[in-house]
Amino acid sequence: MPIILRLLSRLAISLALLLAVSIAVFASVEILPGDPATTILGRNASPDRVEALREQLGLESSPVVRYWDWLKSMAQGDLGLQATGNRSVWSTVSTPLRNTAILAVVAFATTSLAAVGGGLIAGRRPGNRADRALSIGTLSIVAMPEFVIAGLLISLFAFRLDWVSSVSLVPLGGTPLDTPSTLILPVATITLVAGSYGLRLVRALVAEASSQPFVEAARLAGVRETTVLRRHLLPSVAAPTAQVLAFSVPYLIGGTVIVEQVFAYPGLGSLLVEQIERRDVTVVEAIAMIMTTTVIAGFLIADLLGVLTTRHTPRSSSRPSAALP
Amino acid sequence: MTAQLLRFDAAPKLSVDSLTIADPDGRLILTDISFEVAGGTTVGIVGESGSGKSTLLRTMLGAVHRDLRAEGAVAVDGIPILGAPRSTVARLRREGAAYLGQDPPASLTPSMRVEQLIAERIVERANSQAITEALHAVQLPTDREFRRRRPYQLSGGQQQRLALARALANRSRLLLLDEPTTSLDVVTQAMVLDEIVRQQSGRTTVIVSHDLAVVAQLADWLVVLRDGEIIEQGPFIDVVYRPTSDYLAEIIDACPDLAKKRDQRPPHSALDGHHLASALKVDGLRAAYETRSGRVVAAADVSFDIHPGECVALVGASGSGKSTIARSVIGVHAPEAGTVRLADKLVAPRAADRTQDERRRVQLIAQDPWAALNPRRRVGAALARSVERFRGVSRSQAGKIGLDLFEQVGLHPDLFNRRPDRLSGGERQRVAIAIALAAEPDVLICDESTSALDVSIQAGVLDLLAELQRDLSLGVLFITHDLGVVARIADRVLVLDEGKLCEHGTLSEVFDHPHHEITRHLLASSPSLSATIEDRSPTHIQ
Questions:
Q1: B111 to chain A: which residues are within 8 Å by CB?
Q2: Rounded Cα distance, B173 and B168, in Å
């Protein structure tokens, strides 16, 4: 298949997936038992007020019509009005979204660096000292709950060493970038957790690739180790590595609830918890769709990178690796 | 004294002195190895897999696995390599030596372009001129378009040449070869060997192989290795003419050789005094398969038959369609036209539509017994299961029959309860044969069944097949590219070229009076130990 068709087909699949997920999100919030208006106003609210809210939420029309309207406005970037109160959803979501985006971008960079760099160091000579140390280290981190890691970091760097503050206070109207030190502990926690997962997966890919005959041949040809890794080994693991890194996106964009709570970081995770407690369906739907879109986009980018980097390797990688004599 | 110069202006002398290598458990991989290679000469190291020959060659590149303990000395032009500082080893690999391992195309990084692959190995400035020279030296195109290609855009032969060009691009005077032609078909092998012979002059060469016929074309000095010890060494011709060890004599005898044809037997219709029905008859077979680059016609109107007790060899270069014909006969590839008859009875094209009895009659033995055996199952259990299925006997009965079959294929009963990874390549192939025999077939199809084996092991498996063929009146279709093997086992020969049978006759008809150009080409490409030796020492016999 020509490369452009392969890219387009991945794009089409992603769009179809997004549509399917949007139905699930809409259904789970709106069609599940319970009337949103009653849920919001409480059991003892007067029928008039419930009626008024139902009108406002458009609950009188059929679910299909409502889904279609919702999808149309979503596609146009209009997130609508909050179910509770008259603010627009966007004004509620925008600041936490920006804060989470900043945290996610920085943490994604450090996570990728840790996963790929550590994976290369550990996997290039399976079983050597660096490999064993990294494998044990990452396993202990993976085995620990996030809040324990966050707690350890706080007690060490905030209380004992007093290098950074234990909470990420973002000044009103400012961004976390105004005080970059607020990002340090959240980013460190996320990097340790997501980076350890990533490192273990990348390590396995690198270890397998380093027994490929052309990597061995490059070493026996006296090619410098850094060049061997960069030029001979990395291209053959680039596609699966992109997938591994894409797996960290759901965590970065939505799974950081605990990290945000521990550090009181004003992001999307914290907002989601708050709005679920308040039963604000429109905000919850909007957040869910933002997260979903980001995650699907992450995998789409990984897929596209995979297609682009593997176009030179039509041979399957399942060629039996030559065992050392 | 830092950073010794490892660029040799003249072919360097290589010396190995009392080299002993042991694994962490103290088991010796190499024991007290000593030999010298004079500058500009070639030494061939011959031994079967596991004899330590690859370990020995890698030691000359300073590549000893970190778990192994090495003692003794390896030196290139007096510069010690074993135990040398990392910088010396790196310089040797980068500047001093050219190394080519098994399956040379696999050494080409798929994401790199031709010019990058070459430039990386050039010691001085890797300019366009230098790349042109490196490509030109192995008769590859040097134009810009070619240089921008990646390995998968080259033909198989070009990949072989490029791998050699990459190894030699540092203009090294020391050439180290580890089984560079194993797993190649004879035509490609002949091309690669020709190229190596051209590159040999002005270089010191070490070649490691299990195949004496290959080494014979290159080596001045022969070292015979077994279980990590040197059994015998000396000038090639002297050693091969008067082997002092039984082991070398055995290897020489095991070498497939065109010139050593089996005794011609009487035609089969005369064998029992009456006309025999054919065990397998294929008529007008047409089959094709799809690849990335398009449709390949594997069989265009192919017809042949095999009588009981007869071995028919199907010969052709890689990609000529041999395997697809085999797959069509056993019914796992759907042919476009043609019929298959087993014992004169027409059978369905698909195995799934054949009866158990029809499927029983024809059995396949694949090239790679690894892929054919379930690594998690004990081989005896796998064998007993086949016996149970095909012969409809009880489980305990099947176990007994399984053990008999084990004995019949020359396997020790102790191996019955092992898993495939605890068997050698030859043993695994014998298990595969035993499993095929469990079905009590009329016809065995051997698809390159011995190509992956060392010559000495191969000889044993070929003898076994010949014996079964005689004792059980088996018809055998033996698919191979190795005419030396054909000479040893076949009664009749079919030569396939691009899906067409271009030649067909008895062994001596085809070998002594080939009609078709392809046949002549295949015959000319096949290494023959005896012919090479005769060529090299016309005076020796007197």
A1: 235-236, 309, 312-313
A2: 9
Q: Which chain A residues contact residue B99 at CB under 8 A?
A: 217, 220-221
**Architecture per CATH, B268-285+301-525:** 3-Layer(aba) Sandwich (3.40)
pTM of the model: 0.77
Record: contact B106-A227, CB cut-off 8 A: no
pLDDT surpassing 80 at residue B263: no
Going by the DSSP 8-state scheme, the letter that residue A81 receives in this structure is: B
Q: Report the alpha-carbon distance of residue B342 to residue B347 in Å, rounded.
A: 7
The domain spans of chain A are: 93-278
The beta-carbon neighbor of A325 closest among B55, B95, B109 is B55
Q: pLDDT tens across B446-491, in order?
A: 988 887 788 878 888 898 899 888 888 999 999 988 888 899 899 9
Which CATH code, of 3.40.47.10, 1.10.3720.10, 3.40.50.300, 3.40.228.10, is assigned to A93-278?
Answer: 1.10.3720.10
Domains of chain B by residue range: 14-254, 268-285+301-525
- Write out pLDDT tens, residues A198-219: 999 999 999 999 988 899 999 9
At residue B187, the pLDDT reads 81
Long-range CB pairs of B84-92 (<8 Å, 24+ gap) are B87/B2, B87/B3, B88/B3, B88/B4, B88/B6, B88/B62, B89/B61, B89/B62, B89/B63, B90/A222, B90/A224, B91/A222, B91/B3, B91/B4, B91/B6, B92/A222, B92/B6, B92/B61, B92/B62
Question: Encoding tokens for residue A81?
Answer: 């009005």
pLDDT at B41: 93
Closest-CA residue to A311 (of A207, A236, A244): A236
Note whether B14-254 and B268-285+301-525 share their fold.
yes
Using alpha carbons, list the distances in angstroms from residue A104 to A44, A188, A294, B405, B431: 42, 12, 11, 65, 57
Nearest to A154 by CA among A271, A267, A265: A265
pLDDT for position A214: 93
The DSSP line for B482-538 is: -HHHHHHH-SEEEEEETTEEEEEEEHHHHHHS--SHHHHHHHHHS--HHHHHHHH-T
Reported as type and span, the H/E element at residue B296 is: strand B294-306
- Helix or strand run (H / E) with residue B314: strand B311-315
Q: Are B183 and B517 in contact (CB under 8 A)?
A: no
Mean pLDDT over B149-154 rounds to 88
Measured in angstroms, the CA of A205 and the nearest CA of chain B are apart by 16
Ranking A119-123, A261-265, B160-164, B204-208 by mean pLDDT, the lowest is A261-265
- For the question of an ipTM over 0.90, the answer is no
d(CA B149, CA B140): 12
Give B507-539 pLDDT, tens digit per residue. Answer: 989 999 999 998 998 888 888 888 888 887 655
How does residue A78 score in pLDDT terms, banded at 50, 70 and 90?
confident
pLDDT, one tens digit per residue, over B161-191 is 899 999 989 888 999 999 888 777 788 888 8
Q: What residues of chain A have any CB closer than 8 angstroms to a CB in chain B?
A: 128, 213-224, 227, 231-232, 235-236, 309, 312-315, 319-320, 322, 324-325
* The predicted structure's pLDDT at residue A317: 34
**Interchain pair B111, A216: CB under 8 A:** no
> Measured between CA atoms, how close is B111 to chain A, in angstroms?
6
- Give the CATH superfamily of B14-254: P-loop containing nucleotide triphosphate hydrolases (3.40.50.300)
Partners of B344 in the beta sheet?
A: none
Higher pLDDT pick, A264 / B434: B434
Report, as an integer, the average pLDDT of A55-73. Answer: 78
Whole-number Å distance between alpha carbons of A283 and B330 = 64
**Cα-trace Rg, chain B:** 25
> What type of residue sits at position B170?
N
